[in-house]
Fold this protein.
Amino acid sequence: MDLDALAAARADDWQRLDALTRQRRLDGRETDELIERYQSAASDLSTVKTTAGSTALGERLSILLARARLRFTGVPENPLRQFTRFWLVSLPAALYRVRWITLAVAVATVVVAGLFASWVLSDPRVIANLGSEAELRQLADEGFVAYYSEHPAASFAGSVWANNAWIAAQCIAFGIVGVWVPWVLLQNAQNLGVTAGIMLHFDEADTFFLYIAPHGLLELTCVFVAAAAGLRIFWAWIAPGPRGRGAALAAEARALFTIAIGLVFWLFVSGLIEGFVTPQPWPWAVKIGIGALALAAFLFTMLVLGRRAAQAGETGDLAEFDSGERRIVAG
């Protein structure tokens, strides 16, 4: 084989591969091109080694392919840096993507819960079907408050965390079916509205809102975000846009898996507040203030850090993680 002729014929392709390798960011088309040119150059290297053995051209191709391979395999990154990047970049970016759907879900839930509460208050037959007068009064006067303190704080917080995390996971995992998220939201709105209606019927509105507020501000927001994530997956299946349906679903699923991981932590925080703060005999301004600070931290992550990450081109897609300063951004 004439190595000089091969080098002359393939020089432009190898230069393009080198340029793609050195490029800081790649879009989906450029990523595909990088893979194709890498495979072609690897075939060229195999031909050179098979026909000519060890040569300067072969060594040059080996170095070029090694640099290109790093775009796929990368080098180990500092775990602390990965951890920091997840919480300050990837998770905020993923949360920011669902901000408007989250708002719509929140508004819809509040409206539906309000309708259920109004129904309970306006029709005596509804109250009668929910239980006897004595049972409902016991719930309003004692049971609602006792629920937050009848179990040890640690076990109660763990139980609440597991239950809420399971609800959030279902919303994200089964969101693609379309009906699951609305069903979960309807159930939650119904439970919230009926309970509120009972409490208001027995003039315990202040008790209801005071005991819900400390942990509910963050807890309900997390549920709304999980529901929004599930709906976004469903919409990616219905309207994938210019991408294929499979590619759209894969990209959304990777980004929303980031949300699922993040919500585990934030629901843990709300569980701690519900178990250790809500039942305490502290001033309500203190307890609600703690809940408001937790919600403010979540919203800062979602809206401030998320907007900053989105402006930098981040999507929250876990596939965007790569080693060092360079990453392949698929799609």
User: Anything to note?
Assistant: The first helix runs from residue 3 to 22. Confidence is low (pLDDT under 50) at residues 321-331. The beta strands are 25-26, 327-328.
